[in-house]
Design brief:
290 residues; single chain
């Protein structure tokens, strides 16, 4: 919005591509999205095996992005002259962020520890660093309080996800998910079902979709688990309400990015979705049956 300078067309297309990029970028990494993290935690796909989805995810973003480029207004934005300086300790904290990701992956791969252990170690190191920033004579920044930042977390969003998972778990306990699994995976086949679930994730979010799949636990090969990870991850880009990124941007880009402004460009997103699936079959077809 700062770069667009109230240019509605540019801001709208920019927001749509941010949503598309966020969802596509998260589909090929175990840390990229909650859905990939769930699949990794369930041991359906191993850490490095997710990277087989890199090119399908890239295609999913590039196809609509290139097409939308043709509709960007031919204007030059005003230069940004704001001078921003990093505070003392900023680079070290950025390094801690990368170290935390490495710990989560490394401890899981080498010692078999759950990824949250590495994350908690990283949080502990961050809290120790925060203490030094607040109390060291040269850094002394009393406003840097990690506990305060944790307290400001979006608990409403966390409770929303808890409610969804709790509801899906109830459906599984009552037997409805088993009925769905027999109808869809046994009746329709894994290919059609996994592609359909990607479309469904645009309506009801990808987290409950993936949790339902993991609860049903259908007998699928490695290729199909990668396929449903891809479709559930990028399918939410079709609608603004299909992913957390879209919902967040609707709140930030009020008046520029709305449900209907996104819906207008949904056909381009669908083309990217189809192209990503085709690329997955083209590049990873050798995994069928494994």
């Amino acid at each position: 919005m700062a770069v667009g300078n109230n240019n509605a067309r540019f801001i709208t297309l920019g927001c749509i591509n941010i949503v598309s990029a966020a969802n596509a970028g998260g589909a090929f990494s175990p840390f990229g999205d909650i859905t990939t993290l769930m699949v990794w935690q369930a041991n359906k796909v191993q850490f490095f095996e997710f990277f087989a989805l890199f090119f399908p995810s890239l295609v999913c973003f590039l196809v609509p992005a290139i097409l939308m480029t043709l509709f960007i207004p031919d204007e030059r934005p005003d230069p940004v002259v704001e001078d921003i300086k990093l505070k003392q300790g900023a680079r070290f904290i950025i390094g801690l962020g990368f170290l935390t990701i490495a710990l989560a992956a490394g401890l899981e791969q080498t010692l078999g520890l759950p990824p949250y252990v590495g994350m908690m170690i990283g949080l502990s190191l961050l809290m120790i660093t925060a203490w030094f920033i607040r109390n060291t004579r040269y850094l002394r920044d009393k406003d840097f309080d990690i506990l305060h930042n944790v307290a400001d977390a979006e608990w409403d969003t966390l409770f929303f996800f808890f409610g969804i998972i709790f509801s899906v778990g109830g459906l599984g306990y009552l037997g409805y998910l088993e009925l769905m699994s027999q109808t869809m995976y046994t009746g329709w086949g894994a290919d059609i079902t996994n592609i359909f679930l990607g479309i469904a994730s645009a309506l009801i979010d990808n987290i409950p979709v993936m949790f339902a799949v993991l609860t049903m636990n259908p007998d699928m090969d490695h290729f199909q688990w990668l396929l449903v990870t891809l479709t559930a991850g990028v399918g939410g880009s079709m609608l603004s309400i299909g992913s957390a990124a879209g919902v967040a941007l609707m709140g930030i880009g009020r008046g520029y990015y709305t449900f209907f402004s996104h819906l207008k460009w949904t056909p381009f997103i669908i083309l990217g979705y189809v192209a990503a699936i085709y690329t997955h079959y083209l590049l990873n077809g050798h995994l069928i049956g494994t």
